[in-house]
Amino acid sequence: MNKLAVLGVFVAGMWFCSGDQSAQAQSATDKLGRGLANTFLGVFEVPNQVINTYRENTGKYTANRDRATVKAISVGTVKGVREGIRRTSHGIWDTITFLSPGPGGNNFKSRIKPEYITETYDY
Predict the structure, then answer these.
(1) Using CA atoms, how far apart are residues 117 and 19, in angstroms rounded to an integer?
(2) Which residue, 11, 81, 87, is CA-closest to 49?
(3) pTM of this structure
(4) What is the pLDDT at residue 46?
(5) Which of 30, 46, 51, 83 could disulfide-link to 25, CB 3.0 to 4.6 Å?
(6) C-alpha closest to that of 110 among 27, 40, 24, 43
(7) For the residues of 49-113, what is the DSSP string, one character each?
(8) DSSP character for 120?
(9) Rounded to 5 degrees, what angle do the CA atoms 44, 41, 117 make?
């Protein structure tokens, strides 16, 4: 198998494994899985934020679609890069410290919302 196919299988596996989790991780293995998923899938925040920005700015009228498209491409890309860096750094931190429950005994809870990139954003 070539390297691209292996990477594709790995990313797809991380994507499917990260989906249906509870809102709060209860063990070190959950924290490790969340950390690995967020580390490798953080780059997908860019298209995710572009789509979210477009959806937030489209209205009932077609005149708003052109404005929403420009805003989604410009503002959404910047938000996506920011959130991608944030999600990836949280993923690295969760991966490194997966054995520690965190300050105050937070029971391995996620420090980023939504916990996984595949979950719905509540703005």
Answers:
(1) 8
(2) 81
(3) 0.69
(4) 92
(5) 30
(6) 24
(7) HHHHHHHHH--SSTHHHHHHHHHHHHHHHHHHHHHHHHHHHHHHHHHHTTT---TT--TT--SSS
(8) P
(9) 75
User: What does each of the 123 residues of the chain score in pLDDT, given as a tens digit?
Assistant: 576 666 666 666 655 555 544 444 468 888 899 999 999 999 999 999 898 888 887 765 566 677 788 888 899 899 999 999 999 999 999 999 888 887 766 678 888 888 888 776 655
User: What is the pLDDT, as a whole number, of residue 28?
Assistant: 86
What are 96's two structure tokens? 């490194």
Segments making up each domain of the chain, as ranges: 3-96
Q: Which residue has the tokens 């890069």?
A: 81
CA distances from 53 to 45, 61, 68, 112 (A): 12, 17, 8, 19
Q: How many CB atoms lie within 10 A of CB 95?
A: 18
Q: Look at residue 39 in the predicted model and tell me its pLDDT.
A: 93
